[in-house]
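anyone seen this seq b4? input:
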Amino acid sequence: MTAPFRPGPPSGDRPVPPPGPRPGPPLGARPGAPPGARPVPPPSAEDVDDARHPAVDAAVQAMINAAALSPADQIAQYEAAYETLRETLASIDQA
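predicted toks r here
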């Protein structure tokens, strides 16, 4: 070899995919539940209210409010919300 070695396919013509339909799902298809799966009803209002935690609700609201802030301020809000969520989950795990 007289020139530096360069890995990869040889230069020249590139292979062309064969004509015809491409493998994979049809265009516009969206993933969904498998055929025959039964939909799960959403949780009732009583179940959701019992599972709520004020610190988590406050952190989520802070992230929603951060959308109106400048990017630098958004980062500070997201970091504060992350810290709140981390501490809340740690306290739940210790309970």
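The mean pLDDT is 78. Residues 16 and 72 are 47 Å apart (CA to CA). kinda curious what u guys think
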